[in-house]
Amino acid sequence: AGLFYLGVTLRRMGQLNDAESTFERLARIDEEYPGLVMERGIVLEKTGQADRALANYRAALERDPDNINLKVRVAAAQVLVGNCEDAMVLLRDVIRQARNSAEALYYQGRCMIQSGQLAEAERVLSLAVEAEGDNGDYRAYLGMACLETGNIERASLELQRSVELDPTNDIALWQRGVLFLRSASPQAAVRDLERALALNPGLHGVYHHLALAYDQMRRPADAIRYFELAIEHNRDDFASQYHLAQIITDQRGTRAGLSAYERAVETGRRIEPTPRHFYDALFGYGAMLHQVGRVDDALVVLREYLSDSPSTSVDREEARELVRTLGQSRTTIN
User: Are 148 and 113 in contact (CB under 8 A)?
Assistant: First the structure.
């Protein structure tokens, strides 16, 4: 009992490595000690070992298939490893049995954010906060959902409260940085974003927003550096690739920017659903190909743009004129 309660105390104090080693010692003595699987798993989750936590939870759930708390822990670990589809099945089952399970509502809300169900995520996360208002994580993700639905006042309140509850909450700091960024306060954004990154270097989305902040501050070298870091951590980060292409073109000219545009377009073509601003990038790429004299390539890209872009796309008329002009020049040459 002494080792178990020592491990719990260390976990609550944030001394996760010591907590993990304490629980490992207890497991060697009594692997079936009541509550050990749950506490040990929570530490594994918080130390980036969600796969190990999930394996432990699943094994325990097989022995006790009606344990609601274990179902929540399995679902939590599934969310952390990116398997929201299976997590949602378990979470719905838990909520049917315990409608006010704050943790189940929280993880359900996180999955909804990931799948783009933002209004529903805001509703569900509000319920989690109502059930357990002193949890900084719940408020951080509610703030994130509110930010995405445009409920800026609520987002600001929730993120501020989350940071007050836990000044080391990396998600709250990240999202508050995004809020500052959207309100044209890039210096404040940089302070929060750099703190979030120092707390959790694996929070890759922060790199993109730091780059945007430095771009707002007219510090292109720093913006380029952070966009490149964002892409290094996520090769499919279309938004960073597109912004990087724009800055490189502005700073170094068309020829330097052309390869960056090509990379962004290649990424955008393989992502489903089509990312926001993909057709802006596609038109820009076609126009740049024209500028460097690659007429045939420009025609292919601009025709793709005219074929696939929404009828409301702002560059369609210019694209039609370019295709007409390039087509005529190609006919004249031939």
Answer: yes
Q: What is the pTM of this model?
A: 0.84
Query: 215, 247 in Cβ contact below 8 A?
Result: yes
Q: What is the pLDDT of residues 153-169, one digit of tens each?
A: 999 999 999 999 999 99
CB 242 within 8 A of CB 281: yes
Residue 294 DSSP code = -
Measured in whole angstroms, the distance separating CA 79 from the mean position of its chain's CA atoms is: 13
Amino acid, res. 150: G
Alpha helix stretches (DSSP H) within the chain: 2-12, 16-29, 36-46, 50-63, 68-80, 84-97, 102-114, 118-131, 136-149, 152-165, 170-182, 186-199, 205-216, 220-233, 238-252, 254-270, 278-291, 295-308, 316-333
Digit-coded pLDDT (tens) for 44-76: 888 888 888 888 888 888 888 888 988 998 999
DSSP assignment letter at 118 = H
Whether the bond between 273 and the residue before it is cis, its omega within 30 degrees of 0, is yes
**How far is residue 73's CA from residue 61's CA, in Å, rounded to a whole number?**
10
Mean of pLDDT values over 283-311: 96
3-state secondary structure at position 117? coil
Q: Which H or E run includes 151?
A: none
Cβ-contact 279, 310 below 8 angstroms: yes
d(CA 333, CA 328): 9
For all residues of the chain together, what is the average pLDDT? Answer: 93
Do the beta carbons of residue 319 and residue 283 sit within 8 Å? yes
Over residues 18-41, mean pLDDT:
84
Sign of the CA dihedral 121, 202, 171, 16? Answer: positive
